């Protein structure tokens, strides 16, 4: 009996100890919950902001880094919904909106003042465009402003707009205003399951709205729209109603293990998407964004639970970055833009990206320490009162020690920056810049050529004289040109040298949109025999897109591809893709704009992308020579299979050794070498014997010999006499 009593006492003590341990664990979890920050979620924030920075720096391993914004959306939707409903059981809208204002407005106000001052000093030409962007940022409508003004998030046209990244904050703020009211309506539904189902249906409705995107069209409306890009926010909100924070932080071990598996899967999907997706991929709208949102929701759930994923994401460096992620996101893009304004858009040293990241993190850390955290902790009034007291003490004690004068000096510097910003706003130059005016005029010329085009113009058969090697020159009424802002800048010169040409060139256009234009022209019978495509400035061009282009044009048309000169990472990829494609298929002529302009970049505007008026003449000469070269190449489908896009085997007979033509214009002086050679003859570009302003030919395969008049295996484009160019250029072209 005594032994049994002793065992009972021991069991009772163990049970009591277990209860005390459970109470302690619950207390720790409650303390973690009430602290307002979950360490694992700070790690998720850190990963998201690093992905966005990698994308904006143009790191080729992170073409889908823009999906980090969708991770932020999921986190915001989850935490806000949990704060409003799951954690308190009631909606305190006034307290919620005041806390949001404390969190978001101070850092944003300082950013807007500092960026305006920097633009006024370093890039005053951007001030006219900065005014409406500032108004949109203050009103949290940047996303709609950029959508309706077709400011492409993935385009590279001109200097980087310093406030372009604020579109995501606008969507979040609009969500903060509207979602509490919708959530109030959801609370009137009977039963938790009904509320959860309604939230998931709202997320699904956002995906359905994004289906309004038409492949090939400008994705700005879909990407910037609150209704079409709210999927991540609504998925996060639905997750909060499904698994509130209290449920996840107090999850049992078995459930935590399952959440870890879910988190690993979500992290793997996000990593794959960041490494493979791009802004030009059609699958991104809306499927890619929805998949990224679901993967981020899985990672968020695992990071909130006390498991392995949460422990890894709670490492001190990640937590430190996550706490300051809002400031890092705010400052990183203006820092990159200012760096571009200082060193230009040319290829930058590898260390410059590290300097930009360090500067953005330093500014964010200072903002958190001396601005954001004090206001969050004490409020606006108390913080302002403390600053005033510190300034008063600094003024009275400045004569004792120079260190005591630092607050006054900082206040004077801030006042100087604010005055500079105000001067920049109220004394900004009016009207568009010279480059913008040139592009606008080019768009007007482009529209005029489309309005004057005859209807319709069918493609000729392959056997007509217009396609024979010795046919007369190609004229403007035989040419359709589709391009982006670079072609728009040169539209006036193109129309001057090729009267009657059909030009469709608009800024920010990418290859999918260009394919849609060509497809529409082909269906209406207005696509002409020679097609010039100048796309690639705003994003990559893939082999699959070029295959689509070949199938769309058919076997009887001729194609000229214009490569790019853009100081961005994807320019090399675009040019390499086009060059490899021309090597493969002999029916294409490549107009090498990169080689033409790279030695005379002073003919470009300061953005190092668009040609100035003298540069447009060089651009038009290059295109003229390229379209004349199309007379001497075989049919477009030579060696091309319209089914799969690959060569169907060895090229037959006389086409087997045909050289692939690449037309460029080099601008060097040379000494005439060789008796009886004309200085205006087409010569290999790599021998340094090309006269200024005259064309040369790159030979991409085997050595080829000069043979005036015809192209044959081993032959080359004939000399100037067979090119069809007039005896001399007009006076204004020299």
What's the number of structural domains?
2
Helix content: 55-70%
Whole-number average pLDDT?
78
Q: Number of helical segments?
A: 27
Biggest beta-sheet profile: 8 strands, mixed
Ends apart, CA distance between termini: 117 Å
Q: Spatial order of the strands in the main sheet?
A: 2-1-3-4-5-6-8-7
Please write out the topology.
Blueprint: H1 2-34, H2 39-56, H3 68-86, H4 93-122, H5 127-138, H6 142-148, H7 167-186, H8 192-210, H9 220-224, H10 231-242, H11 245-249, H12 253-276, H13 287-304, H14 308-313, H15 316-323, H16 325-343, H17 350-378, H18 380-397, H19 406-426, H20 434-451, E1 479-483, H21 485-489, H22 491-497, E2 502-505, H23 511-523, E3 530-534, H24 543-553, E4 558-562, H25 569-584, E5 588-591, H26 593-597, H27 613-629, E6 661-666, E7 683-684, E8 694-699
Parallel strand pairs: 1-2, 1-3, 3-4, 4-5, 5-6, 7-8
Antiparallel strand pairs: 6-8
Structure, described:
The chain is mainly α and 734 residues long. It has helices at residues 2-34, 39-56, 68-86, 93-122, 127-138, 142-148, 167-186, 192-210, 220-224, 231-242, 245-249, 253-276, 287-304, 308-313, 316-323, 325-343, 350-378, 380-397, 406-426, 434-451, 485-489, 491-497, 511-523, 543-553, 569-584, 593-597, 613-629; strands spanning 479-483, 502-505, 530-534, 558-562, 588-591, 661-666, 683-684, 694-699. Strands 2-1-3-4-5-6-8-7 form an eight-stranded mixed β-sheet, sandwiched between helices. The chain starts with a helix and ends in a 35-residue tail after the last strand.
Quick synopsis:
With 734 residues, the protein is mainly alpha-helical. Helices cover 57% and strands 5% of the residues. It has 27 helices and eight strands.
């Amino acid at each position: 009996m005594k032994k049994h009593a002793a065992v009972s006492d021991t069991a009772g003590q163990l049970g009591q100890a277990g209860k005390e341990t459970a109470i302690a664990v619950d207390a720790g979890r409650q303390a973690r919950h009430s602290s307002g920050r979950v360490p694992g979620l700070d790690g998720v924030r850190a990963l998201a902001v690093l992905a966005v920075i990698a994308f904006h720096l143009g790191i080729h391993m992170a073409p889908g880094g823009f999906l980090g914004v969708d991770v932020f959306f999921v986190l915001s939707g989850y935490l806000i919904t949990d704060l409003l409903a799951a954690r308190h059981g009631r909606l305190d809208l006034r307290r919620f909106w005041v806390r949001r204002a404390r969190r978001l407005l101070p850092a944003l106000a300082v950013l807007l003042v500092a960026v305006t001052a920097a633009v006024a000093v370093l890039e005053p030409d951007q001030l006219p465009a900065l005014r409406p962007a500032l108004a949109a940022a203050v009103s949290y409508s940047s996303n709609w402003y950029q959508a309706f003004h077709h400011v492409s998030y993935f385009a590279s046209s001109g200097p980087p707009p310093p406030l372009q990244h604020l579109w995501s904050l606008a969507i979040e703020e609009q969500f903060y205003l509207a979602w509490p009211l919708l959530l109030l309506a959801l609370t009137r539904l009977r039963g938790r399951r009904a509320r959860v189902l309604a939230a998931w249906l709202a997320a699904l409705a956002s995906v359905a709205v994004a289906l309004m995107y038409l492949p090939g069209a400008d994705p700005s409306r879909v990407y910037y729209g609150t209704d079409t890009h709210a999927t991540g926010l609504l998925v996060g909100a639905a997750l909060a109603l499904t698994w509130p924070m209290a449920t996840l932080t107090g999850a049992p071990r078995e459930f935590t293990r399952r959440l870890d598996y879910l988190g690993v899967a979500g992290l793997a999907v996000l990593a794959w998407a960041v490494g493979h997706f791009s802004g030009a991929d059609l699958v991104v709208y809306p499927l890619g964004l929805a998949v990224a949102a679901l993967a981020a929701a899985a990672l968020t759930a695992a990071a909130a639970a006390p498991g392995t994923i949460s422990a890894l994401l709670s490492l001190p460096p990640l937590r430190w970055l996550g706490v300051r992620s809002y400031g890092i996101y705010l400052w990183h893009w203006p820092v990159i833009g200012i760096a571009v304004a200082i060193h230009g858009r040319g290829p930058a040293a590898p260390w410059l990206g590290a300097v930009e990241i360090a500067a953005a993190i330093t500014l964010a850390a200072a903002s958190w320490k001396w601005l954001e955290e004090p206001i969050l902790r004490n409020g606006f009034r108390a913080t302002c009162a403390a600053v005033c007291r510190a300034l008063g003490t600094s003024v009275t004690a400045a004569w004792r020690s120079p260190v005591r004068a630092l607050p006054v000096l900082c206040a004077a510097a801030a006042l100087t920056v604010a005055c500079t910003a105000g001067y920049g706003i109220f004394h900004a130059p009016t009207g568009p810049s010279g480059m913008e005016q040139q592009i606008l005029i080019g768009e007007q010329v482009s529209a005029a050529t489309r309005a004057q085009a005859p209807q319709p113009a069918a493609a000729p058969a392959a056997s007509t004289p217009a396609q024979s090697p010795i046919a007369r020159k190609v004229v403007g009424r035989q040419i359709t040109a589709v391009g982006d802002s670079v072609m728009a800048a040169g539209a006036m010169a193109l129309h001057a040298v090729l009267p009657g040409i059909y030009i469709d060139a608009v800024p920010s256009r990418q290859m999918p949109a260009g394919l849609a234009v060509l497809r529409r022209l082909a269906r209406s019978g207005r696509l002409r025999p020679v097609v010039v495509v100048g796309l690639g400035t705003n994003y990559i061009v893939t082999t699959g897109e070029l295959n689509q282009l070949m199938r769309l044009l058919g076997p009887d048309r001729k194609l000229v591809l214009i490569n790019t000169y853009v100081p961005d990472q994807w320019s090399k990829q675009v040019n390499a893709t086009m060059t490899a494609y021309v090597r493969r298929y002999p029916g294409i002529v490549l107009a090498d704009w990169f080689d033409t302009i790279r030695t005379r970049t002073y003919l470009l505007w300061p953005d190092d992308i668009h040609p100035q008026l003298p540069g447009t003449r060089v651009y038009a000469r290059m295109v003229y020579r390229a379209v004349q070269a199309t007379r001497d190449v075989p049919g477009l489908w030579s060696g091309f299979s319209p089914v799969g896009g690959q060569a169907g085997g060895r090229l037959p007979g006389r086409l087997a050794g045909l050289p692939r033509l690449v037309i460029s214009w080099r601008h060097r002086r040379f000494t005439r070498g060789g008796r009886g050679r004309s200085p205006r003859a087409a010569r290999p570009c790599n021998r340094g014997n090309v006269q200024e302003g005259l064309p040369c030919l790159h030979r991409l395969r085997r050595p080829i010999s000069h043979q005036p008049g015809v192209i044959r295996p081993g032959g080359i484009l004939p000399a100037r006499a067979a090119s069809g160019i007039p005896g001399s250029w007009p006076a204004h072209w020299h």
